[in-house]
Design brief:
It contains 9 helices and 15 strands. With about 375 residues, the chain is an alpha+beta fold. The protein has a single domain, classed as Phosphatase 2c, domain 1 (4-Layer Sandwich). It has a 7-stranded antiparallel β-sheet with strand order 1-2-3-15-14-10-11. Strands 4, 5, 8, 9, 12 and 13 form a 6-stranded antiparallel β-sheet that branches. Helix 1 packs across helix 2 and helix 5 packs across helix 6. The longest helix has 23 residues. About 0% of the residues have low confidence.
């Protein structure tokens, strides 16, 4: 783990990675905050159990709008919001849940994770308020991760994404690139429209309302592949969904090892995001880091050619997240129209494979 100096005046950040090759497993995580000492993303969760060849990656994004009230004062004297506490309690609950899962011989469903989350949240500090509202929550946080089990002899991995809210889990393949494994708990489901509108969530992990942990089961996914979990600080401030994959592959292409990759991913997101950002990555089935880079060389070239080189130049002067607010000598309305046309065109092509494993819409939680 490497992190910035403990200076309250500066936003903190942390990167972590495996060091060297570990039987075809390469892992890293990145955590950054926007407001010094008050980043509402918990640190990413990355674990692998060698005895059973299973593990999990997950991220947790405290929902600051719904849980903005302070509920706890830390030993350093800083007051923290319900969103800050909720994300960290959810991480602890997930950690304890996985330790139990690793001892089980039969597959464990999402119901047991829900039980762990409920119990830990019930013991956490929270402030009761007379002020109500449909958007207010106690200790609200998103959760998105992938529980996996490697089948070495078959060269496959069993995937079980688990999620609540609008953080996401993905799998990246050398041939078809990025596939989303989770569906945001929002009334809008189109990934490009989600970038443009950022609608409210209909389901989050919290201490005072019913919530659900959704899942799907992919019994046999071919390795090599890369599992990714990310909060919206990473994917919610790009111009198109393809640009998130481009960040992943362009930084991989530049890196010499896992730690350099993590640092480049940190620098990359800090250049454009407007939010706390956290990311967990686990690469499976690659011989070494050089082999990992080589496996995605062709995909990186294809992605650059199809979705990056043709982007309007006005995007270099446009805030990320949907193409609004273009600046420069060109008429703003004309520039915005060109950006939107380019977004629509690239998205229709990109989504063909991106949504291959998009789960069906679940029931709405209230």
């Amino acid at each position: 783990m490497e992190s910035a100096p403990a200076d309250r005046r500066l936003p903190r950040q942390a990167i972590w990675s495996t060091r060297g090759e570990s039987a075809g497993l390469h892992a890293l995580s990145v955590w950054t905050e926007q407001v010094p000492g008050h980043g509402e993303d918990a640190e990413p969760f990355v674990v692998h159990h060698w005895g059973t060849q299973q593990g999990m990656i997950a991220v947790f994004d405290g929902s600051g709008g719904a849980g903005a009230a302070p509920v706890w004062e830390g030993p350093d004297g800083l007051h923290h919001t319900g969103a800050w506490v909720g994300a960290r309690v959810a991480r602890l609950a997930t950690d304890c849940w996985f330790r139990e899962v690793a001892r089980e011989t039969e597959p464990v469903g999402p119901e047991s994770l829900h039980t762990y989350l409920n119990w830990f949240l019930s013991k956490a500090p929270r402030r009761h308020s007379k002020i109500g509202g449909t958007m207010r929550r106690q200790l609200p946080t998103t959760l998105a991760g992938v529980h996996y089990r490697v089948h070495v002899e078959q060269g496959t991995v069993e995937l079980r994404p688990l999620w609540a809210g609008d953080s996401r889990a993905y799998v990246l393949t050398p041939v078809n690139g990025l596939h989303v494994l989770t569906r945001d708990h929002t009334r809008e489901s189109d990934a490009l429209e989600l970038l443009r509108t950022d609608p409210p969530m209909t389901n989050v992990v919290c201490a005072d309302r019913e919530f659900g942990i959704d899942t799907q089961h992919i019994a046999s996914f071919e390795m090599p592949c890369v599992l990714i979990a990310a909060t919206d600080g990473y994917f919610g401030y790009v111009h198109t969904p393809a640009e998130f994959e481009y960040l992943i592959l362009s930084t991989l292409h530049q890196a010499g090892n896992e730690l350099e990759w993590a640092d480049l991913l940190r620098r990359g997101v800090q250049a454009y995001t407007g939010d706390d950002a956290s990311l967990a990555i686990l690469a499976l089935g690659h011989t070494d880091f050089r082999g990992l880079v080589a496996a995605y060389g062709r995909r990186f070239s294809e992605l650059t050619e199809r979705y990056v080189r043709g982007r309007p130049q006005v995007l270099d002067r446009t805030p990320r997240g949907g193409g609004e607010g273009a600046a420069g000598p060109e008429d703003p309305r004309a520039a915005q129209a060109r950006v939107r046309a380019w977004q629509d065109q690239t998205w229709q092509s990109y989504r063909t494979t991106y949504e291959n494993y998009l789960p069906p819409a679940a029931e709405e939680y209230r």
